[in-house]
Amino acid sequence: MQRTAPAWATILVLSLCGMVSALQFTLVIPLLPEFPQLLDISASDSSWLVTATLLTAAVGTPIIARMADMYGKRRMLLVSLGAMILGSVICALEVSFVTMIVGRALQGFGAALIAVGISILRDKLPPERIGTAVALMSATMGIGSALGLPLAGVLSNWLGWHSIFWFGAVAGAVLVVALLVVVEESPVRTPGRFDVTGALVLSAALICLLLPISKGSAWGWGEPVVVGLLVSSLLLLVIWVPLELRVNQPMVDLRTSAQRPVLMTNLASIFAGMAMFVNMLVTVQVLQQPAATGAGFGLGVTAAGLAMVPSGLAMVAMSPVSGWSLARWGGRAVLLVGAGLMSLTYVGRVFWADSVAAIVVGSTLVGIGTALAFAAMPTLIMSSVPITETASANGLNSLVRSIGTSLASTLVAAIMATYTIEVGGVLFATEEAFRIVLVLGAVAAAVCVALAALIPRDRRTHHERELARAQGGEKQEAVVRGQIRLARADDSARGTILVSVLDVHGEQLDWSRADNAGRYSVVLPGPGTYVVIANAIGWAPEATVFDFAGGEVEQDLTLARELTVSGVVTRDGAPAAGALVALSEALGTQVGSTHCDDAGRYAFQLPPTGRYVFTAYDPHTGSAHARKVTLTIESEVVDIDIPVGATLQPH
């Protein structure tokens, strides 16, 4: 029998994966001014060493996360680490500048480690430990980014600049072994066919969007290449959205993403990402800028990087507090507090930033707010999506956060370039520029607060904890699959079939959206009695009681009763065989038409709730009659009697 690793070991290994992932983005930053000379390239070319990583991180994270839900989360963690290790080795060997770009691009795939790692924590840990573990995993982004600046200086000074890449390769190799030894594969997955077309179109759209955002300031926002890329991104998204709505197992479930809890959380994440990144950008720059500018402290790269460490450490130290807060008040309240703290701190920094100590304190407070916000966001996402889709949902959330950081980088660069002062023949940002950037951070965090206020309370996370207490805290989850069949073929029901699982107390445990063939997967917390409910647009719901004893089980349901609006058309009391019945909305939009059978009967599939006009026309007598009816969500009978010789009169 395989021995299960302790929870703390799983948390430690996955957190280290997240930290090493974050290091890939900051280790090269101190060396960017030196790369033109080291690699014999231009300064603008050297920026591609950062851009390539950011692009692949944004593109690769949702793809790897979706694959994790389908093919195994630990497996895709190993794939991400493998790509990162390969990229690190390529960069360390320094064959050419082109291979360096390829290596840096491969390192970007390591960004998926955090999103997929958080999903594994949800699957493997007892519910009462998930909050703290997710908070720690989210905090690794901060501590990894903070440690990257001073660590790069130490490694390059002692062992040469190639050592920063060898460090990434060795650390990744150690973590591969640790993953294989400590972290078990999650049993929660939904095998299927990967949406290759959707992934390719989304990747192209993201590249066309993020490339001009990253390079627009250098290339010029009015340049044809920038405008062309932005327009291409929009066109590709226009193609991608209907594609995802039709495909059987989409790359991104847009219907789920459009639901209020997920949509508001993702929108809030954009601005939380902006607020977080503004802190790193403004803090490092103001500490390094010469004191002669009147808006800097003249610290070296290593010293400025060390000044960011308290912020990263505070994020880690806040993990237990964040976990306790999530368990006590839920993700919505924690996100409100975290974003609110960031906004208030930025406002304070506008007026109090006259010493290194003040800068460090302000940066640390923003870091604490970031820790709370970033712990809340994946918790909110996972409590709102099907359990079998938590990795891909977290991947999408990571993507929108990266869009926020890219926007922050572009806006900060534009502000710094607009408000400048010349010292020794070099342009630097003015004090006013730094104040405007701090205001930008405050506004971004405030918008995050406003959006977080629109997020409903996350009930499922709370109920999972109560259920775990009743079961003794042991995780016994199992995936149950099945198929929902319709009594007749109905293409209009594609993508609308929903399956919910309730316990005997009426609490929803999981839900799933069936694919185009009606197949679904839900996660049950363990053996017990459950109620399975299936519903689809145009069909009456069905429910069944399900006694689950464990193992692999198929639970099928059939929706037998189609919801219709039907009736009989008569002509002076006699059946009007062959009469035409037209259905339209009260405002005039046509819904459909049909002909009566020999008994005068007709039927339409029930349209959405609202007011409609039913018009019956008898071609034999040239008479017609109309009725206005309010339809609800239940089947309705609407009989129409056509008086002989009647003109069209609403009734």
UniProtKB/TrEMBL annotation:
Domain Major facilitator superfamily (MFS) profile: 10-459
Chief place where the protein resides: membrane
Organism superkingdom: Bacteria
Subcellular localization, as worded in the UniProt entry: Cell membrane
GO CC list: plasma membrane
Membrane topology: Multi-pass membrane protein
TM helices/strands, residue ranges: 46-65, 77-95, 101-121, 133-152, 164-182, 194-213, 225-243, 263-287, 299-321, 333-352, 358-381, 402-421, 433-455
This protein's UniProt keywords: Membrane, Transmembrane, Transmembrane helix
Molecular function as annotated in GO: transmembrane transporter activity
Official protein name in the record: Predicted arabinose efflux permease, MFS family
